[in-house]
């Protein structure tokens, strides 16, 4: 009985799309979109350590916490887009 349940659980695993250039472009654009949105949407910037990179010509300082937050959001957004497009058959 338990082997039948295990087989049922293993046999219904969905297949994922293998990595290719179009998936990479989707992830890159999702992260760029998240960085742009995060740059303008995050209210209190510069609370943590700063990045050793030149900043944009504004009074906002885009530091390490902002970078990690926007990169995390971008990867979540990109994974959702990729999984949605894969399951609908577009990718």
Tell me the radius of gyration. 19 Å
Largest sheet, described in full? none
Task: Determine the fraction of residues in helical runs and give it as a percent range.
Answer: 55-70%
Distance between the termini: 38 Å
Q: Could you give the order of the helices and strands?
A: HHH
Structural class call reads mainly alpha
Identify the overall geometry. elongated
Low-confidence stretches: none
In total, the number of strands is 0
How many helices? 3
Strand content: under 5%
Give the mean pLDDT.
Answer: 78
What does this protein look like?
- The chain is mostly helical.
- The protein has a domain at 24-40 and 61-90.
- It is 62% helix and 0% strand.
- It has three helices and no strands.
- Helix 2 (21-41) crosses helix 3 (64-88).
- The protein is elongated, with a radius of gyration of 19 Å.
- This is Photosystem I reaction center subunit PsaK.
- One of its GO terms (cellular component) is plasma membrane-derived thylakoid membrane.
- Keywords: Membrane, Photosynthesis, Photosystem I, Thylakoid, Transmembrane, Transmembrane helix.
- It is found in: Cellular thylakoid membrane; Membrane.
- Pfam families: PSI_PSAK.
Show the helix and strand layout:
Elements: H1 2-11, H2 21-41, H3 64-88
Helix pairs in contact: 2-3
Pfam families: PSI_PSAK
Organism: Gloeothece verrucosa (strain PCC 7822) (Cyanothece sp. (strain PCC 7822))
Transmembrane segments: 20-42, 63-85
Structure characteristics:
91 residues
